[in-house]
Amino acid sequence: MNSVLKKVRKKAVFSETKIHTQKPKNSGGGVKITPDNFFLFIFIFWDVTEIIFGTTAESILGLPTNQANSMVSYIILLLLMVHIIVFQKFKEKELYAIMIISFPVIFSALKSSNYSLLSGWMFIIASQKSDFEKLIRTAYKILRLMIPLVIICYFAGLLEDYTILRNETLRHSWGFGHPNLFGLRLFQLTACHLYIKRNSFGFLDFFLAVAVMALEYLVPNSQTAFMSTLILLMTFAFYKICEKYKMSLVQVYAKALILLAAVFNVLSVVWSVLDVRQNHILSQIDSWMSQRFWQCHKVYLLYGIPVFGQKVFISEAERELVGITYDLYLDNGYMALLIRYGILVYGIFSVCYLSAMIFLYRKKQWYLLIILFIYALYGVMENGNYRITHNIFLFSFGSILYGKAFRKRTWLPFGELQVKGRKR
User: Which one of 151, 205, 278, 309 has the fewest beta carbons within 10 angstroms of its own beta carbon?
Assistant: First the structure.
């Protein structure tokens, strides 16, 4: 009996000693602030508020939506500046690249009074130590939460339905600011889902994508979102076929996507500058696309193409302020960049976009390359391709800015890089 008690005492003393000798990882007692955690906090705060401000809500917490949006934008800008100054260090080449791109982007944003591109560029700069995969997964979770929440608020009578009649079809926004914005969020959800499930894509994932397509068509009746989702599924499926039978075919396929992305860009500008009504074939193509090129041509004739940015009045409220009595639409992403931000910023964006695709091709990141291709196509029909709130995959631009530094732990979508058989 005494020997048993001695063993019990020894075990108790050992366990007590073990407990007391273990030190908590964070002796401060609070949450440890790391560059990744701080950036993720900013990202979540920004992404959630972007979706909220994109609804039909007239006020947020008693403030008019526009005023609340401006206030949050300043807060996020301040947080990003703090993050860059406190947590980041730049190599000389990185600093030169940031300065070369930042000056025209800032100047054009000030002249155009449109800060969406500048906001995206600030996020890309601040994402130096962040994990790309985590960002996509976080954006996906936010979309899964916020899209149903906005719809619930609409059916609960808290948000209004913005409706548009196209031909005989009534288009609904279900609480979002515009039917096209509802469609864009659904497409973004699908793109994130397919990217996350890229290595385990099954029948259920395909079924969910088709269900989202049906919703895109039946409720917002967004042709761009519907066609982009359909083509995304087709390009993913064709890649799987190429991968299964011949790897060299995958490389040819990827090169074709990069070339097509460049063609979409160039043709969008050329066909918008020209009067497509003067050519029967181009006029027919334009009619299939709801006269997007002709509408861009009207804006081009009115404003021209500046070297730097300029204020462009498109919405009904904006047009009333300056006395424009006819409707204006600028639904092509490339022409929107060119007319709003000027030829210099348009050129920088185009070069960076194609360079990112080429970089991903060299690293054999086929799925991400496909998604960037789809967004390049999306830019032909809508102007959300250059806005990071609508195209979260623009964070891949950082693969050019930081990826070639070959850090031991990088936020690139393909993880650690192999250099001459060693991990760097």
Answer: 278
